[in-house]
Design goal:
four-stranded antiparallel beta sheet; CSC1/OSCA1-like_7TM (chains A, B); mainly alpha; calcium-activated cation channel activity (chains A, B); two-stranded antiparallel sheet; CSC1-like protein ERD4 (chains A, B); transmembrane (chains A, B); ion transport (chains A, B); homodimer
């Protein structure tokens, strides 16, 4: 890629971003759009726009985001979101402080090096453009200038340790504060019990569980809820909900239009003879309710599983029970802390201990295979989508492609677009796989998927593109001389830097522009409210913003971080791009967290240890890259990069030892501080965990399950 | 080694064993020796010999050992000893059932194979004797007979899985039964607290600890004992004890001889002017007691450390507290279960969390280096101590050595003796290293040392001798053709088999003969009582038998097991030797456990998981050996040994998952079953933990600390 196409890519990205931001300012000020731009505030019962529309200027949102405190974020969006911002600002700190020292030192050193010019083969094939002169590729082998790059490696590493340590402490503090708060959270009074042993003769599951826990916790045991297999009752409940929705819709249509709507009684309400909708759905509902009640009774009686939620009268007892070994064998009476009611995955609870283990191993194998076999297409994509290759493969494109503007744009975007589209397909697959492991809570599933996604993107995108791109473009050279592969990699690393530079720029300008302007949700909202939504409920559904989507955001950030870190010394010019990515991300997402998204669960910062260890993993990958690259540059003291790798591993170990367990178990001093006086309403806590399909009709009748 | 020297070795060993056993029968029946042969019974207040001396026959001890039940062992020697016998009988089971199938099948197959005879180089240099014909070395390459050996590999593996699984379940049951017993054990009411944070201003350590635990356990917290640095008070106490002993001795001499003994007032009681001993030591004691009392007060006041024992009013609370995370950071308020009072290592308790980690890593490095550098001398020893090499190196020995009898004996024993002497030097070093890790209990230190010893012996002895012996004897061949190394190893494995066969035989006949006859303790006892002991206390000291010495017994057994397992298919003749070793071991040690040794601590079977995983490790080493050996035999289906290795690893993982945690933490259902009604005397439990140096004088005065 030459300088002009790089500049084109950058300016187009930036223009798109400016355009989207202006669009956002204009649209978010228009009345009627507040459901798209301020749903979180609306749902929390706040005035959508503080200060009214008049005082708005295009950067008001940014000012508000900047002036918001961590406590604002916690109150509007929870601890998990606050932790995500700690992650963003930590990475920002690492990159900013690295850049402050590295840019003024390393760029001039690279640009003014003359030692390489004499024997430079790369210039001949045009790979060394002006841009590449600013990278380490321009520094000659064995020169003393390499010492500066070497020192830079250590500087980046120590910045990372410093900020990560501070952040881990801070997040631990955030988690403790949340768990200490006197507010009653049902999950703090419950534990999840799995793998109850076979029923003794003449006992029901409930009796077995109650007697077991009452004997161990005679004073603090409160009651238990046996997990049932709700598949059948859920189906009926969904059917009922569907009819109720259709009934409400028909009634709304009747109220507005004055004529009673009709529908077909056959397939999808389209075929069959026309009937009066209100009567039809009322009849359906009347017929289905006894079925639901019967199914509820049958489920509660017959579908009891070997798992239960056990409730304690105080937090201490629950926190302690979740950490203790109860039976002699670990695969009997497994007790863990209870997830929030809203994120409990009922269908996973009955999976037995060793089946969970087997499932986990199977899923890991599947993921490893997928990573391996995705490598192949990715390498092909990055090889094919260079324009020169495309022309060779599809000669009829030559006419179009040779026009200068199109050529520049295509050259700038084609590979990156291919990559981004490709990565968008993955998350759902990984979520499904993680859920199949038998994990009991949604947040845990998302963390697991997020981890897999990270390995995926780092291994495939970063290593795949670097190695793959190099291999394909220079396969012939390798055939001639297999020993040249290290030299090739060393040469290809700086060459790929510009590719990743554009990738990062595209990601932040276009990605965050789209995120902020919410063009797609806006269009959907307006289309839906205009043509489809009839009832209030349907309208609300059409603008409900949902979750911010941790599971896919974090690994993408991690990928960017890995790329920026790995190139931070080789091509320091990438650092400002990384800084802008994370700064812009912080700003835009801060706005979205405060005003748009509604978190679908709260795990009190359990995501952090994963983020932390992945940042350290990126750091190690960076150090390994430098080890290899210094080696390729024939730097005599290459091996003194190794202590940095050892430091990183020790740092990871120390952090894990010191901090991790609190993210797994609740420390008793924290639980003790949060004791509730007087004891909370245990009936209410119990009812939080009842799934709607089991309580629905009873609640309708007397308000009490 | 040829057949005749093998037979010589075997018969001499056996004769020594018979001799020692007869000696034992004769000596143990003689009155006055009961303190050497029945100390455990005497200390437990039992009649030394049931049924009196008259009814003794030479095998009465064996009959008694065989008819003793596991409960006898538990009541006479505790759970730990019972677990050791479970280990012995498990290994015995594995080897016996392996032998039953393998010997009748594999030996004829090996002996009758003719395919190898034609191209046998090894015969020429005499390595293939009659004995070696019974080994797999005699089976030709690529023959179908290898299938039988292959099936044997799987048979041994499955026998191991079966017996190990049964044993783990059984030991878990033993441990549960012991922990459930209503007998009051102080360690079940206490936890060990380490890493208390820095003292807040104006609080003493005791106040800090009490207030912390009282706030978390308002109902079950009883009291705490702050750990002090007792170095100085211990020194004074030891000095006092020394003087008291000397005083008692002087008084005993006076009582017997009627003249007041004298001693020098200078160095060691030998130099200086002569003084009256009784007056002299009484004066010393009178002067030292005030110093001790002052030191006790100072210690309790000023030497308080950031560690404590915390006592709870019931077992459940203590069992639960030991498993819980108390503070947010793992390196603050570390709570673990309390060891027994007698095995608590006070001086290790104050070492801080991360210092412990660093010490542990440092010790591992030291051990790894020691293993590495011991490899060199061991390899030399095994090379030098073959007679041919000795003659070459020390030609003047030729005269002596060439006499047939001496030659045979030397050839039979020299290498084995060298090895055994060498291994005897290690345990103390390893115990010292393990103690330096900062481990709080003696049993844990011994387990850790035992683990190190295992790696030591397996890596050095087994691999060192096999590889080293081969390398030295055939260094020239390798120089000629480096690729021949695999063939060399394959050929050397069966050749080394006879070496190990003699090693095992020596070990069991002579080792267990000495163990049973207790010749050395007997001599020491008689010498001491005759010439040195004056007081009753000194006599008791002279016959006190001490511990059985787990830490060194188990790794030796493991080494034998590893050798026998690894050669079980290659040279099946080794199996009966293994069976005899473990059967004889079981029998002899059963006698010793019932009548001689007094366990110095009780860890309720915590040794088992270590034994278990090391047996599995031996099994894996065996499977790896077979993988290599089948490969060297050019067996086409060699790779189907790999599933066996995977089975072993999965088996180890499953066992670890299912059983291990109960050996680390007390399961609450077990603790709940053992609840004491009414609550025990907490003051008494507290006093158990006070070290004698801190309570000595107070107890003397009013019987109450």
């Amino acid at each position: 890629m030459d300088l002009s196409s790089f500049i084109t890519s950058l300016t187009t990205s930036f223009l798109i971003f400016v355009l989207l931001m202006l669009l956002f300012t204009w649209l978010s000020g228009k009345p009627g759009n507040e459901f798209v731009y301020y749903p979180n505030r609306i749902l929390k019962g706040l005035d959508p726009i503080e200060g009214g529309y008049a005082s708005r200027n295009p950067f008001a949102w940014a000012r508000e985001a900047l002036s918001s405190t961590e406590n604002d974020i916690i109150s509007m969006s929870g601890i998990d979101t606050a932790v995500y911002f700690v992650f963003l600002s930590t990475v920002l700190g690492i990159l900013a402080l690295s850049g402050v020292l590295l840019l003024p030192v390393l760029l001039p050193l690279a640009a003014t090096d003359k030692s390489r010019k004499t024997s430079n083969q790369a210039t001949s094939n045009g790979a060394f453009s002006n841009l590449d002169k600013l990278s380490m590729g321009n520094v000659g082998e064995k020169t003393d200038r390499l010492w500066a790059f070497f020192a830079g490696t250590y500087w980046v590493s120590f910045m990372a340790y410093y900020f990560l340590w501070k952040a881990y402490k801070h997040v631990s503090q955030l988690r403790a504060r949340a768990l200490e708060s006197p507010e009653v959270k049902p999950e703090q009074f419950a534990v999840l019990v799995r793998d109850a042993p076979a029923l003794p003769v003449g006992q029901t599951r409930k009796e077995q569980i109650d007697s077991y826990f009452r004997s161990i916790y005679p004073e603090t045991f409160c009651r238990s809820m046996v997990i049932t297999n709700n598949k059948k009752v859920n189906e009926i409940y969904e059917e009922l909900k569907g009819y109720k929705k259709k009934l409400a819709r028909a009634e709304a249509v009747y109220a507005v239009e004055g004529t009673r709507p009709t529908n077909g009684s056959g397939l999808l309400g389209l075929l069959g003879k026309r009937v009066d909708s209100i009567d039809y759905y009322t009849g359906k509902i009347d017929r289905i309710i006894p079925r639901l009640t019967a199914a509820q009774k049958a489920t509660l009686r017959e579908n009891q599983q070997a798992a239960a939620l056990v409730f304690f009268t105080n937090r201490m007892a629950a926190a302690s029970a979740a950490q203790n070994l109860h039976a002699r064998f670990l695969d009997k009476w497994t007790v863990t802390d209870a997830p929030e009611p809203r994120q409990l995955i009922w269908s996973n609870l009955d999976i037995r201990f060793f089946e969970r283990q087997v499932r986990q191993i199977a899923v890991y194998v599947v993921v490893a295979l997928t990573i391996l076999f995705y490598m192949v297409p990715i390498a092909f994509i990055s090889a094919f989508t260079t324009l020169a290759n495309l022309k060779k493969l599809l000669p009829f494109l030559k006419e179009v492609v040779d026009q200068p503007t199109i050529k520049t744009i295509l050259e700038a975007y084609l590979p990156q677009m291919a990559l981004i589209v490709f990565l968008a397909l993955l998350p759902e697959l990984l979520l499904f796989l993680s859920r199949s492991e038998g994990i009991p809570s949604q947040s845990h599933v998302e963390r697991a998927a997020s981890g897999k996604y990270f390995y995926f993107s780092v291994l495939n995108v970063f290593i795949g593109v670097t190695v793959g791109g190099t291999l394909f473009s220079t396969l012939e050279e390798i055939e001639k001389d297999p020993n040249s592969i290290i030299n090739l990699l060393a040469r290809s690393l700086p060459r790929n830097a510009t590719y990743f530079l554009t990738f990062v720029a595209l990601k932040f300008f276009v990605g965050y522009g789209l995120e902020l302007s919410r063009v797609v949700p806006l269009v959907i909202f307006h289309l839906k409210t205009k043509y489809m939504c009839k009832t209030q409920e349907e309208v609300k559904e059409s603008w409900f913003p949902g979750d911010m989507g941790y599971a896919t955001k974090a690994p993408t950030d991690m990928l960017i971080l890995t790329i920026v870190l790995c190139y931070s010394i080789i091509a320091p010019l990438i650092i400002p791009f990384g800084v802008v990515y994370f700064a812009l991300g912080w700003l835009v997402l801060r706005n979205q967290a405060l005003k748009v998204y509604v978190p679908s669960y709260e795990s009190y910062g359990r995501m952090w240890p994963h983020l932390h260890s992945r940042v350290v993993a990126s750091l190690v990958l960076f150090q390994l890259t430098m080890l290899g690259y210094f080696g390729a540059k024939k730097f005599a003291y290459t091996l003194i990069v190794i202590p940095a790798i050892i430091f990183s591993l020790v740092f990871a170990l120390v952090c894990h030892r010191k901090f991790y367990r609190f993210f797994q178990d609740t420390a008793l001093e924290v639980a003790a501080r949060g004791q509730n006086e007087p004891a909370p309403n245990m009936g209410q806590i119990f009812r939080c965990y009842l799934p709607p399909s089991l309580t629905h009709e009873k609640v309708d009748k007397d308000g009490q399950p």
